[in-house]
Every structure is written in C-alpha cells, then in structure tokens.
Amino acid sequence: MSELESIEASLRKAGFKLTPQRRATVELLLKYQTQHLTAEEIYALLKQNHPNVGLATVYRTLDMLTDVQVVNKIIFEDGMVRFDLKTQDHGHFHHHLICNICGRVQEIHEDLLVDIEKEIKQKYRFEVADHRLTFLGICDRCRQKRIDKN
Amino acid sequence: MSELESIEASLRKAGFKLTPQRRATVELLLKYQTQHLTAEEIYALLKQNHPNVGLATVYRTLDMLTDVQVVNKIIFEDGMVRFDLKTQDHGHFHHHLICNICGRVQEIHEDLLVDIEKEIKQKYRFEVADHRLTFLGICDRCRQKRIDKN
DNA sequence: ATTGTTGCAAAGATTTTGCAATCTA
DNA sequence: TAGATTGCAAAATCTTTGCAACAAT
C-alpha cells in the first residue's frame, strides 16, 4: 500500500469523505515532504492545478489532517504556522535547525532527548508525552559564505 | 541597583524615554516574572491601575523591550505569543514543561543541552546561537489527581 | 522646545464561520 | 438520497500603523 493510499484509508476510517481537494492536498504534502509549508503556500501551490479551490477549504483540510494525525501543525519561533506530513520513519523524533541568516529550516531525525526525558521525569515528576526542540543559529551554507567573504 | 532601575537604565541607554506606561509595564512584568503573559493579559492587568493605557502602547512597549533584550518573546505550540522577562540568573538556559491537561507552563532553569549542542555542531556544522526546548505531557499535579480518582 | 510617545480608530494579516450550492458514499 | 463538503464572503482575532495631541528630556 502506497503512502497516499494509506493516508486515504486513515481518512475513510475516521469517517471523512475523500474529495478531490483533499486528495490533491495530501498529494501535495507528499510531494513537498521535506519542506514545512504554510497554509498560504499550500493554497498557492494547489491553485496551480485546482484553480477554484478555496482558502477556507485548505484550512479545513489541514485541520482535519492534523486531527487524524496525518500532519503535524508546527508553530515556529517566528510565529509562522507550518504543516508537515507525519511519516512512519520520522515518528516523533524530529527536531529543527533554523538558520538566523537565511531562514532555512532543516530537520534532523534522531532522538537526542532519551536521557533528558528520563531526567525530567525523575526531577519534576512530569510525564513526557512529546517534545519540541529547535536550535537557532548559523547553518553550514551561511557559515561557508561568511568565510568566503573574508 | 534594583532590577527595575537596571532595566530603566537599559532603556535610557538605548535612547528610549521612560514614560509612566513603560515603567508600569516593566513593574508588572517583574511582578509576574514566573508567568508567561500574553499582550492581552498584560493590557488587562495594566488597565487596573492605568485605566487609559492603550493596547497599541502595550504592543509597542513589548516590542521595544524585546528589541533591547529585556524581555523574551516566546511562541508556544498553542501559537499564543507570550512575553517573559529576561533575568540574569536565568540566562538562556530556560526550558518549558507544558501540561496537556491543565495547560500550566512550568519553567526549568538548567542547561540540559550542552552535550547535544556539541553534537549538533559536529554532525551538522550548525553554529548554535540559541535553542528552544519544550516538553509536552502531564504535570505532577494532574498525575496526582488522576491517581486520587481511582 | 524638540522629539519621542501616546491613545484612538482604522487598516492589515491570518484564520474561522455561516450558508446555499454541490458533491461523495 | 442524505449528510458531509465546498467556495464565497463576512466575521473574528490578533497585531500594526497613521495621526493629532501630549509629555519627557
């Protein structure tokens, strides 16, 4: 079963109808998997092939996909709301490196926090269900450019 | 020099005038240091003693305080923009535990990421300038309540 | 006195909602 | 066919801005 089919099955299972708009949105999210798109960006890309899709539908579809756990709704430090397909292999171990210079958002897929979560549980008696970890700084590309300039 | 005086000195140094509205805002942030207030919350609290302060002024004051590094503008997973006084002792080692049940935001003041930042730098050649770490889960209080119920 | 600052109201930006028309199952 | 879904426009939120009056240095 392809990833698309598996997502479509999740929707049906949750009792949602599979409309062309929803299918197109899921396909688009699959295509741009590595990126973190905003609702407006998704809307603009969708318009290219589906000129009369409405922005409200995009918002509603993204909400629904968030509900059924197909996408992650991520709010970064800049306050931008971005949507991101949840994929099996990435699971919940998914952190971000945000470059202060070029603004690029890089994902890293490894769990860095296993030991720290244990520590949190012991010290604060806090049951960790999920976490968000973001590093802000200067990415490799921008660092290289800086060196080149001098 | 009190914390208030030191903040007022920062403002003057940056060329800003010290108006009653600004002083009141800083005093309020000092008073509610442990909390993360939204602009609206700050506005409402301010109104109690300064009934004719404007919301726009609150936003402008908070922007200015962010510029001069007196407050942190933090955007959590819920998308709410919150403001938080930067204090010497807390520095940049300041993480959050957010309870999924009661919504309480708890700060923890220790640097958990020293080793991880080194790893990030080596693996991704990313120069870390700052970080944001948030744990989502169930706080001690809510966990206790759950146990009591059974 | 000069320049920054304020409050207000209007404008922006983003997201949500009401509703009649339309589609999916 | 029945109920969910859509597009549109209007509304709701949150934040910013223009401007004349005002206040801090």
Question: What key attributes describe this structure?
Answer:
homodimer, 150 residues, alpha+beta, Arc Repressor Mutant, subunit A, Dna Ligase, domain 1, 2 domains, three-stranded antiparallel sheet, 6 strands, DNA-binding
Please describe what this structure looks like.
2 copies of one chain form a homodimer. Chain A has 150 residues and is α+β, with helices and mostly antiparallel strands. Chain A has 2 domains: 1-88, Winged helix-like DNA-binding domain superfamily/Winged helix DNA-binding domain (Arc Repressor Mutant, subunit A), CATH 1.10.10.10; 90-150, 2-Layer Sandwich (Dna Ligase, domain 1), CATH 3.30.1490. Chain A is 45% helix and 22% strand. Chain A is built from 6 helices and 6 strands. In chain A, the strands form 2 sheets. The first copy, chain A, has a 3-stranded antiparallel sheet with strand order 1-3-2. In chain A, strands 5-4-6 form a 3-stranded mixed sheet. The longest helix of chain A is centred in the middle third of the chain and has 13 residues, at 55-67. The N and C termini of chain A lie far apart (53 Å). The A-B interface holds A 75-79, 81, 97, 99-100, 106, 108, 112-113, 116-117, 119-120, 124-140, 143 and B 75-79, 81, 97, 99-100, 106, 108, 112-113, 116-117, 119-120, 124-140, 143. The structure holds a DNA duplex (25 and 25 nucleotides).
List the SSEs and their pairings.
Two copies of one chain form a homodimer.
Chain A: H1 3-13, H2 20-31, E1 37-38, H3 39-49, H4 55-67, E2 71-75, E3 81-85, E4 95-99, E5 105-108, H5 114-124, E6 127-138, H6 140-149
Parallel strand pairs in A: 4-6
Antiparallel strand pairs in A: 1-3, 2-3, 4-5
Helix pairs in contact in A: 1-2, 3-4
Chain A binds a DNA duplex (25 and 25 nucleotides) through residues 15-22, 39-40, 52-57, 59-60, 63, 81.
InterPro entries (chains A, B): FUR, Fur_C, WH-like_DNA-bd_sf, WH_DNA-bd_sf
Keywords (chains A, B): DNA-binding, Repressor, Transcription, Transcription regulation, Zinc
Family (chains A, B): Belongs to the Fur family.
